[in-house]
């Protein structure tokens, strides 16, 4: 069964600062798990490098219903790019029949419990994570420093 994976986790330098978050244990499982790499922020048309962004007045769920926005560190509103990236990611999931997405933590796009948002708990869904979950796609969140999670892939 194919699965989506955050491109930065397999070593693609697509993070905002043009770095990556390679997890070698994941790359070793690539054949077995049929990963399809995606970077929602790039799919939304944002450049690399780019200014880091934060969700204000809510989390990714709020962004999808128009209650929250995504602003970058320059104060620019990049909400539409984040939504487009989420939609393109979902489109890809449907094309390949993916029922699972392995996503990097702490991202306002990919995170399942990202701190880059404004909620009562201080954590929330990234925009892409929110859209994939609403479409019934299972998400496995990976903290590159916390190798124990790789075991559940
Ligand atoms: S966490 Fe997601 S949006 Fe951020 S660089 Fe990795 S793949 Fe792209």
How would you explain this protein's 3D organization?
This protein is an alpha/beta fold and about 150 residues long. The protein has one domain. Helices cover about 30% and strands about 15% of the residues. It contains 6 helices and 6 strands. It has a 4-stranded parallel β-sheet with strand order 2-1-5-6. A two-stranded antiparallel ribbon has the order 3-4. It is globular and about 40 Å long. The mean pLDDT is about 95. The structure holds iron/sulfur cluster (SF4).
Helix/strand structural class: alpha/beta
β-sheet strand percentage? 15-25%
Question: Strand order within the widest sheet?
Answer: 2-1-5-6
Bound molecules: iron/sulfur cluster
- Total of DSSP H or I helical runs spanning 4+ residues: 6
Largest sheet: 4 strands, parallel
C-alpha Rg (nearest Å): 14 Å
Helical content stands at 25-40%
The number of domains is 1
* Tally of strands: 6
| Poorly predicted sequence stretches spanning 5 or more consecutive residues | none
Distance between the termini: 12 Å
The H/E string reads: EHHEHEHEHEHE
Give the rounded overall mean pLDDT. Answer: 94
The shape is: globular
């Amino acid at each position: 069964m194919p699965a989506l994976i955050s491109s930065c986790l397999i070593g693609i330098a697509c993070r905002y600062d043009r770095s990556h978050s390679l997890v070698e244990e994941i790359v070793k499982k690539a054949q077995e798990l049929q990963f399809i790499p995606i970077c929602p922020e790039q799919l939304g048309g944002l450049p690399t490098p780019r200014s880091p962004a934060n969700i204000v007045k809510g989390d990714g769920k709020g962004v999808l219903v128009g209650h929250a926005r995504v602003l970058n560190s320059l104060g620019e509103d990049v909400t539409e790019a984040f939504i487009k990236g989420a939609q393109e990611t979902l489109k890809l999931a449907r094309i390949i029949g993916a029922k699972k997405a392995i996503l990097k933590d702490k991202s306002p796009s990919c995170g399942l419990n990202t701190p880059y948002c404004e909620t009562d708990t201080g954590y929330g869904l990234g925009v892409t994570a929110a859209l994939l979950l609403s479409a019934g796609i299972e998400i496995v969140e990976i903290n590159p420093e916390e190798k124990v999670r790789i075991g559940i892939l």
